[in-house]
Amino acid sequence: MALHRSYLVVFALISTMIPVMTLAKELVVGDGKGWTINFDYQAWAQGKDFRVGDKLVFNYPVGAHTVLKVNGTGFQNCIKPPASEALTSGSDEIVLATPGRKWYICGVGTHCETAGQKLFITVQPQPSSVSPAMAPSPVQSNMAPSPVQSNMAVKDTVNYQLFFGVMVAVVTLALAF
């Protein structure tokens, strides 16, 4: 019986962690366009909720572009760091490990300066707890949801995942004792 309770306690603990692990998301920069020239990356980033643990994926043809992490001045003036710092795989993944402002540019030719191939985002910390106040506001039926409302729907989904995980843990612990 004690072994049975131990298994239930372990299951309860794991079920509370699974929803938290699903909070991180993968964002393909530029969506279907990928990392390319003459694309408005600031418009793409507008309304998106970047969080610690999320992963940015830069997709582009190998040799056509690079990804360089820069500071604010490097972003404004398209100042390229040494080529040895460039990501060049064509499917570069960057895990957003810390909150704050992040800047990325292309280091090929004048892609940053003349073609606007640069991205600025602000990364938020992961919430320590999810509040019920994150529920989405009603959307009028004749209008498409705005990016902010779409993000709220994602947060709402996360609320349900957390709620489900906590409920499974509570029921499991109740059964164990």
UniProtKB/TrEMBL annotation:
The record lists the membrane-crossing segments as: 158-176
- Any one of the GO BP annotations: response to symbiotic fungus
User: In which compartments does the protein localize?
Assistant: Membrane
- Which keywords label this protein? Copper, Disulfide bond, Electron transport, Glycoprotein, Membrane, Metal-binding, Signal, Transmembrane, Transmembrane helix, Transport
Coiled coil, from the record: none
Using the record's annotation, list all stretches that form the Phytocyanin domain: 25-125
In the record, what terms sit under GO molecular function? electron transfer activity; metal ion binding
**What domain of life is recorded for the organism?**
Eukaryota
Q: Which Pfam families would you find in this protein's record?
A: Cu_bind_like
**Which InterPro entries does the record cross-reference, listed alphabetically?**
Cupredoxin, Phytocyanin-like, Phytocyanin_dom
Chief place of localization: membrane
Offer a single GO CC term for the protein. plasma membrane
Q: Where is the signal peptide?
A: 1-24
What is the membrane topology here? Answer: Single-pass type I membrane protein
Q: Which PANTHER family match?
A: BLUE COPPER PROTEIN, PHYTOCYANIN DOMAIN-CONTAINING PROTEIN
This protein is called Phytocyanin domain-containing protein
Originating species: Acer yangbiense
